[in-house]
What we know:
This protein has 417 residues and is α+β, with helices and mostly antiparallel strands. Among the domains are: 154 residues, no CATH class; 105 residues, no CATH class. It is built from 16 helices and twelve strands. Strands 5, 6, 7, 10 and 11 form a five-stranded antiparallel β-sheet that branches. A four-stranded mixed β-sheet has the order 1-2-4-3, with helices on both faces. Strands 8-9-12 form a three-stranded antiparallel β-sheet. A hairpin with a 2-residue loop joins strand 10 and strand 11. Helix 5 crosses helix 6 and helix 11 packs antiparallel against helix 12. The two termini are 24 Å apart.
Amino acid sequence: MTVQEFWNSGISFLNLCAVYYVTQILKCVQISFIVFAFVYFLRKTLLKNRVFLKSMLWSLFIPVLFAGKIKFFYENTIGILLFTWWTEICKTCIWINWLYICGIFVYAARRFYKKRKLKKMVAGMERRILEDTSIYVTKMPVTPSTIGIFRPKIIMPEVMLKEYDRKELHTILLHEKTHIQLGHLLFYFLWDILRVLLWLNPLLTIGTKFFREDMEEICDWVTIQRSEGKAYAYGQLLLKSMRVLQAENENFNMFATFAGDKEYQNIRQRVTRIALYRPYKQTTAVGTWIAAMLCIIAAIIWIQNISYDRYNPDEGILTYGYDGNNVTFFDNHDALHQMITYDDNYVYVDREAFENYLRRHNASGDIFIVFGGFYKLPGIGGVGCSCYYESGSKEQIVQIPYESPVDSWRIKLLKLL
């Protein structure tokens, strides 16, 4: 193989990978619109006041990421009409796939840059110990927050440490610890991954606000119950936070939550939700979470069962004619299965039936038969066996030897994709 042939082969393989993955992701994007509408509707209606169940709705987006290879898209008439047009566009216009992949990298780079910038800012803050917990103190009038997944860091404004009493600081610290213990930082990270991969759906970016509201509401309820306080006192603490931070700096920066009319409305809505707090049984909350996770796992397993495998045996048979420059004839009719069979070493052709078939289709040029092998998705990626049919035989059943395609590293890698 020459350098040019190796280069062309590599480019073709990368294009195939791009088409294979982007067609799946774009189907997930389309499904995510439906799931978002479903989640938004339920959290605004039936589950509006069901704090734990409402938050579990967001886990419905997890199975969406596994739905790109569902057979419904390729074998059902409705699925073909609704979803296959994207596949055809991606197969025809390779540049669209690379454009989408570039969008993923750009979106991911932006998210990474913002988090990296915030991480560096926190690293330069003063560290103190509050109730045996290491916190990072900032002079900026921002709301307490927590960043990081594996090494979470709690950030608190210096003004709160000065203005709040010990009990109030304990409640605020407990709230941030609850975010960590409930895994919210990991959930935020997974949500960012979802937004990056499905960046073509703007509703996911818009929905970030609602997602964080629901996580915050759970954290508020758990904090109130753990602190053994009352919802009224907890709401008063939030309102005090708004007053203290506004007094510290009228011109809030981008990190401040309690700033201006918009932030006032946000805190007002949050206090309103806190007013609905009712004591709950921890076993019920944990049971709800476990049941939701089991449902999500079951949904993923079900999706895998109705989806194409990583690679699928190709039972089809096709024939084509080639005159040395152009394909003169091509057909993959089901009738070929009645004329052609094969085993591990030979192809068996019913001579009379096959040659009548070729005459009816005005086949010309050298006739090739393609069969067996595997495919990734219908019409996308795969390898097959082939043989050359030579006319003029006197045998009723023409026996043609063939060799299976070499199981090269490219084929092995294609199977693993």
